[in-house]
Design a protein that fits this description.
Blueprint: H1 14-17, E1 23-27, H2 32-44, E2 54-59, H3 62-70, E3 72-74, H4 83-86, E4 90-91, E5 96-98, H5 101-104, E6 107-111, E7 125-130, H6 139-151, E8 153-161, E9 174-178, E10 181-184
Parallel strand pairs: 1-2, 1-7, 2-6, 7-8
Antiparallel strand pairs: 3-5, 4-5, 8-10, 9-10
The structure holds S-adenosylmethionine.
Length: 194
């Protein structure tokens, strides 16, 4: 999950994942968000396949992870994706689509309980998508989880949250750069998540 460090051309993947696109972490619902995003990235920048680029897609629910790892979806499961993104999947038949292999190889699906005392992943991420997950937690827990996500984000990295989520006490560590997209300030203290 480490990138070849090299400058990114204007308009390249760096717009999403910062300078040397390296790691992105995504909390997933059956992986559709991770895969849909990745297919769009590959369509826009096919050279991404040559990069040392990885997406880590996690969820506490191992059944959704197993489904995602199979790479095959009923068309009806993709209702949260735009038509343009659905078209990037390979057709299996009238009812099913599959994730192209080139994309599958770039995503790892792993179980993760955000509330576990320690997180297993090492290193830091250039972008983290954690949308509509902290809504399940009470305020202090939301703040704790956002703090831990902040600690595994590189300075300048991007944090995507849901429309009804906010950064609470950690807001000063970020600046708003888009609708529900926050960029970690250069001085934020990145440290181990555990
Ligand atoms: C509403 S879905 C959001 C999925 C996806 N981020 C999206 O926006 O479509 C919430 C997800 O959070 C997961 N979740 C709930 N509690 C969790 C926890 N403690 N750690 C990790 N994931 C959790 C659920 O299993 C579910 O897949």
């Amino acid at each position: 999950m480490h990138a070849r460090r090299r400058p990114v051309a204007q308009g390249g993947p760096g717009q999403l994942c910062r300078g040397a696109a390296r790691r992105a972490a995504i909390r997933c619902r059956a992986g559709t968000l991770a895969i849909g995003l990745l297919l769009s990235l590959l369509a826009a920048w096919p050279e991404l396949k040559q990069w040392d680029f990885k997406i880590l897609a996690t969820d506490i629910d191992t059944s959704v992870l197993a489904k995602a790892a199979s790479g095959v979806y009923a068309v009806g499961d993709l209702s949260d994706l735009s038509r343009e993104r659905v078209r990037l999947f390979e057709r299996v038949d009238d009812e099913y689509v599959a994730v192209p292999k080139a994309a599958r190889d770039l995503v790892s699906f792993k179980p993760l309980n955000l509330l576990a005392p320690a997180w297993p992943m090492k290193g830091q991420f250039d972008a983290i998508f954690c949308r509509n997950v902290t809504i399940y937690f009470d305020r202090p827990t939301q703040s704790e989880v956002i703090g831990r996500l902040t600690s595994v984000l590189v300075p300048g990295g991007l944090l995507y949250v849901g429309h009804s989520e906010n950064l609470g006490l950690h807001a000063p560590d970020f600046r708003l750069v888009g609708k529900t997209v926050y960029q970690a300030r250069a001085h934020h203290k990145a440290k181990d998540a555990a």
